[in-house]
Amino acid sequence: MDISDMVQSAVDEHEFDSGLLTLWCVHTGASFLGQANADDDVIADINAFFEDLLPQKAGKYRHKPDHLDNAPSHLRALLTQTQVSIPVENERLPLGKVQSLYLFEHREAPKIRRIRCHFIGN
Amino acid sequence: MDISDMVQSAVDEHEFDSGLLTLWCVHTGASFLGQANADDDVIADINAFFEDLLPQKAGKYRHKPDHLDNAPSHLRALLTQTQVSIPVENERLPLGKVQSLYLFEHREAPKIRRIRCHFIGN
Amino acid sequence: MDISDMVQSAVDEHEFDSGLLTLWCVHTGASFLGQANADDDVIADINAFFEDLLPQKAGKYRHKPDHLDNAPSHLRALLTQTQVSIPVENERLPLGKVQSLYLFEHREAPKIRRIRCHFIGN
Asked: Hey, are the CB atoms on A35 and C79 less than 8 Å from each other?
């Protein structure tokens, strides 16, 4: 899920001019990515890579939660980022032309995810 | 090693109320994880995953240090995080209900590890 | 590319004494590493690991850009870090004795890369 606009909206709403914005994901089954947004196939490749490296397969993991997608989701989160800090300048996130900030859901079923936002600056 | 309590103790001791706490690991064979703490099998799965992906095996790596666990430890550190920044609010770390902060030792023998802590805020 | 000296020069030039320095890579095909600098074979091992895990091979990825190294570069960036925040103390980066900060180029051809630097402190 591309959250760039949502994060930019928070910057606009609070009139953050320049400073450091930190996002913290309070979940262990979702995490942040700074990634290319020019082509949906990039996201498809990410999903295929993770399914290949850390498949949702019964018997593969020692951790046996209720849902099969739980154990690999921890490992997928570990390889990405629980936290990201983004410099804000002139009320803008410094994202590259084809760069977006994503929240990557590692579980299969849709979930409500909470992100803590912290800003320090003007 | 779950360092959540140790980090919270540092917040308490210095009476940090709200701000941004940054931890920097000055080693290249240990790194940070934000991970689930509900079940020790999660950590066992992490260890198994890394041993599978980056085994401690003679002849696998060009870097030939004194100890076999040194070369893969660099690569394991690279896939996790040398640094983590955590928003502090009302003197609390914003960890989720089953979320802990870990320092992940990638070497086999126990080592003394130093973490630089930086806080900015009130 | 070891950017430790370049980053330290920026700290010197702006006379940053103590605070938090954040680097943000505005590209999706390059990212940051905190890594060992004692032996060039460490970097060779990193390159071999990524080529093994995410090969530049026609037909492997759905994303079909002009250049074969583009699709795996996104995935390699994802496994490392788009952003890094480093505490500065007494005008020094807190790098360990054999620890350097690298900008890791995931594309094959040389490219000009821009890094946003943000400092908060004194």
From this structure: no
